[in-house]
Amino acid sequence: MVIEDYIDVLISCCGKSDKVDKEIIDTYQSHFLNGDIGLIFNKYTEEEKYEVYIYIKTKDKIASPLLYITSANKNELELYYSELLEFIKNDEPKNIINRCIIKDKN
C-alpha cells in the first residue's frame, strides 16, 4: 500500500478538532513513507485547554487529527506529546498506522 491509500483509510479514523483560535506550543514533522508525519501540541487562545494530535500527509491529502486528545491538564498532554513523539520517531510506519486505526475505533 502507498501512503495515499493509508491516508484514505486514516481519514475515516480522524477525530474532531474544535474550530477555535489556537496557539502552537510545540510541533514536530518528519518524512514518512513518501509523505510526512507530524505532531501538534496546541493551546486554545481563549481558554485553558490544550490538544495534541498526529497528522499524516502528502502534497494533496491529509489525515488529521489522529490520536487526538484534548484536556485542560497541560501536564497530561505534555506527557502524551512526548509519548507520541518517541513513538513516531522510533516505530515502523506499519505500527504507527495500525495504532491510529485501532485507537480511533475504540
| Strand order within the widest beta sheet | 1-2-3-4
First-last Cα distance? 24 Å
Give the number of helices.
3
Percentage of residues in DSSP E strands: 35-45%
Helix coverage percent: 25-40%
The residue-averaged pLDDT reads 91
Backbone CA Rg: 13 Å
Low-confidence spans: pLDDT under 50, at least 5 residues?
A: none
Q: Describe the biggest sheet?
A: 4 strands, antiparallel
Shape: globular
Determine the structural class based on helices, strands and strand pairing. Answer: alpha+beta
Domain count, please report it: 1
Order of helices and strands: HEEEEHH
Q: What is the strand tally?
A: 4
For the structure shown, list the relevant keywords.
single chain; 106 residues; alpha+beta; 4-stranded antiparallel beta sheet; 3 helices
What does the model show?
The chain is of the alpha+beta class and 106 residues long. It has one domain (3-105). 37% of the residues lie in helices and 37% in strands. It is built from three helices and four strands. It has helices at 3-11, 74-90, 93-105; strands at residues 22-32, 35-44, 50-57, 62-71. Strands 1-2-3-4 form a four-stranded antiparallel sheet. 25% of the residues are buried. The mean pLDDT is 91.
Write a short abstract of this structure.
The protein is of the alpha+beta class and 106 residues long. Helix content is 37%, strand content 37%.
Break the fold down into its secondary structure elements and pairings:
Blueprint: H1 3-11, E1 22-32, E2 35-44, E3 50-57, E4 62-71, H2 74-90, H3 93-105
Antiparallel strand pairs: 1-2, 2-3, 3-4
